[in-house]
Q: What sequence folds into this?
């Protein structure tokens, strides 16, 4: 079975069929998807701007990682599940869309950037100054993340216009 | 409400040279919508953090006075970007919104949210140090905070539903 066969099966499954066959399910799921994304992007941007030193300079990255990031992860899970549901309604068409694929690649890259930050760059974040500039690697991580997430939103919007 | 009047206003806007010009621009609507969504992301993240903080659920180690001071301006800057990008969208597709009851409801919710945010920010500016030292936030502040969480969510939902509602 090829991957496209699998996508065919997915959109013909009771799940995919129920969503595509309903007049209201898709917009409701999409609304939850958008709401979750707004929180994900907005809260990540706060951490990124702090890493860059452009905002919240009096705040510590340790505190932000502990008190903000868990909420971001929760919202991301909601966005991922609702995104998966939306995908299942028309899997073959989404997969054929270049912006959709580029968005998936960017999501993976944004995730890798976070993992590198979590396990390598930010390993000693407890030693970082609470105020003032952070190490260059931390600032780069913040800048890269900000760009990734902005482009993810833009591509997400473009998918809706190019399907 | 006022469907006929709104349709007439829309017809007038569509015929203006400015509207004609942006309608001819490739990618104008998705690009403007992207800006609109990024701005609402700032509004949702900042207001959710403030409201959850007032409810004692998030950012608990940060004094309300400090968080309030930090988030006060970004909300209004983002709302200004939302207003401008929203007007830019209206210019290209006026009828889609103006004649839509979902859009009208969204504007009503937005006005309510703005009033509540102004009141909340005023209360934070004058009383937050007291709440921080007491370790408690009055019910009269927590109830509107809970409402605001719901109102902003409804605003995002309504925004998405404009695309689907037929009236």
A:
């Amino acid at each position: 079975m090829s991957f496209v066969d699998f996508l065919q099966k997915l959109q013909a499954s009771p799940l995919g069929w129920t969503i595509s066959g309903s007049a209201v399910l898709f917009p409701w799921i999409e609304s939850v998807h958008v709401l979750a994304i707004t929180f994900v992007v907005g809260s990540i941007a706060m951490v990124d701007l702090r890493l860059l030193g452009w905002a919240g300079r009096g705040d510590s990255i340790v505190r932000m990682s502990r008190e903000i990031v868990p909420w971001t992860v929760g919202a991301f899970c909601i966005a991922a599940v609702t995104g998966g549901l939306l995908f299942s309604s028309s899997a073959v068409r989404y997969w054929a869309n270049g912006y959709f694929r580029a968005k998936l690649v960017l999501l993976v890259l944004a995730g890798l950037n976070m993992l590198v930050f979590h396990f390598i760059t930010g390993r000693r974040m407890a030693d970082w100054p609470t105020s003032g500039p952070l190490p260059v690697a931390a600032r780069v991580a913040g800048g890269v993340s900000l760009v990734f997430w902005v482009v993810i939103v833009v591509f997400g919007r473009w998918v809706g216009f190019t399907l | 409400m006022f469907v006929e009047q709104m349709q007439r206003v829309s017809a007038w806007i569509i015929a203006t040279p400015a509207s004609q010009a942006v309608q001819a621009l490739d990618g104008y609507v998705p690009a403007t919508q992207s800006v609109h969504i990024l701005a609402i992301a700032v509004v949702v993240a900042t207001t959710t953090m403030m409201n959850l903080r007032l409810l004692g659920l998030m950012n608990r180690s940060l004094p309300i006075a400090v968080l309030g001071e930090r988030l006060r301006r970004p909300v209004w800057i983002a709302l200004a970007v939302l207003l401008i990008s929203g007007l830019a969208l209206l210019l290209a597709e006026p009828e889609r919104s103006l004649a839509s009851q979902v859009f009208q409801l969204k504007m009503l919710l937005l006005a309510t949210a703005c009033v509540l945010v102004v009141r909340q920010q005023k209360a934070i500016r004058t009383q937050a140090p007291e709440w921080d030292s007491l370790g408690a936030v009055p019910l009269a502040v927590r109830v509107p905070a809970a409402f605001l969480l719901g109102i902003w969510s409804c605003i995002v939902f309504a925004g998405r539903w404009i695309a689907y509602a037929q009236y």
